């Protein structure tokens, strides 16, 4: 008589392995998000050495998800991995900025034109809330939170236009611009200027004037693009 095959231990082993993989993927994602935010905000400046062991200890994980997160950051141009030396935060590549500017103007010009045609009173009210928060943050000089609200403003326009995926594309495309811009926001009066530019965009959207909305957006994006030569002179170790 043939004995029944015991499958429970095998099933349990598979379940445990799946659980381990899920935890690893989740940990790698969390580590990536934290490091991404710290690099873009310049909390982790260009040239900083990243120690796998230290990161693993901070997150309470093994080095495997740390390596996965660092590899993903490397693919996005935010860290440089040197097999025999370690991993460092990448310097901002000046050559990548002009193309990113062109892409941003083209895509955000499209989203704001579309948004102007269909924006509702509720949409405008949402933009007003964001602008009010920016005004308050500018008053106290909180550049980091101000930048987050700036992102929220542009993302909201993409949402209004019905093309939220465009913002997802832009977040990747403009990451090097964002790193450079973090050095410009503390400049005297710059945050106040951004608020005024956002108000012009908001007013054009409220008036359903697509041409004016596009013009205001292009003007705004031209103004927020950093003077790379000046920044490079002031922070020579941050750019390449």
UniProtKB/TrEMBL annotation:
Entries under PROSITE patterns matching the protein: HTH_GNTR
Record-given protein name: GntR family transcriptional regulator
Key word DNA-binding present: yes
UniProt-listed Pfam families: FCD, GntR
UniProt keyword Protein transport, yes or no: no
InterPro entries recorded: GntR_C (IPR011711), TF_FadR/GntR_C (IPR008920), Tscrpt_reg_HTH_GntR (IPR000524), WH-like_DNA-bd_sf (IPR036388), WH_DNA-bd_sf (IPR036390)
UniProt domain HTH gntR-type: residue ranges: 25-92
Keyword terms, alphabetized: DNA-binding, Transcription, Transcription regulation
């Amino acid at each position: 008589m043939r004995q029944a095959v015991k499958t429970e231990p095998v099933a349990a082993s598979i379940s445990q392995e799946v659980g381990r993989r899920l935890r690893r993927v989740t940990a790698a994602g969390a580590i990536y998000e934290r490091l991404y935010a710290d690099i873009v905000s310049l909390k982790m400046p260009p040239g900083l050495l990243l120690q796998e062991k230290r990161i693993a200890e901070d997150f309470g994980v093994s080095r495997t998800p740390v390596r996965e997160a660092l590899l993903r950051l490397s693919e996005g141009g935010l860290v440089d991995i040197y097999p025999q030396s370690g991993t460092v935060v990448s310097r901002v590549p000046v050559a990548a900025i002009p193309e990113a500017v062109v892409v941003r103007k083209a895509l955000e010009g499209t989203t704001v034109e579309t948004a102007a045609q269909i924006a509702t009173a509720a949409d405008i009210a949402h933009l007003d809330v964001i602008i009010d928060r920016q005004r308050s943050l500018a008053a106290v000089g909180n550049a980091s939170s101000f930048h987050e609200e700036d992102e929220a403003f542009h993302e909201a326009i993409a949402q209004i236009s019905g093309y939220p995926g465009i913002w997802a594309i832009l977040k990747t495309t403009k990451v090097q611009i964002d790193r450079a811009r973090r050095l410009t926001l503390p400049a005297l009066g710059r945050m106040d200027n951004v608020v005024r530019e956002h108000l012009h965009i908001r007013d054009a959207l409220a008036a359903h004037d697509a041409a004016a909305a596009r013009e205001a957006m292009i003007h705004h994006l031209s103004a927020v693009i950093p003077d790379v030569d000046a920044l490079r002179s002031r922070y020579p170790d941050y750019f390449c």
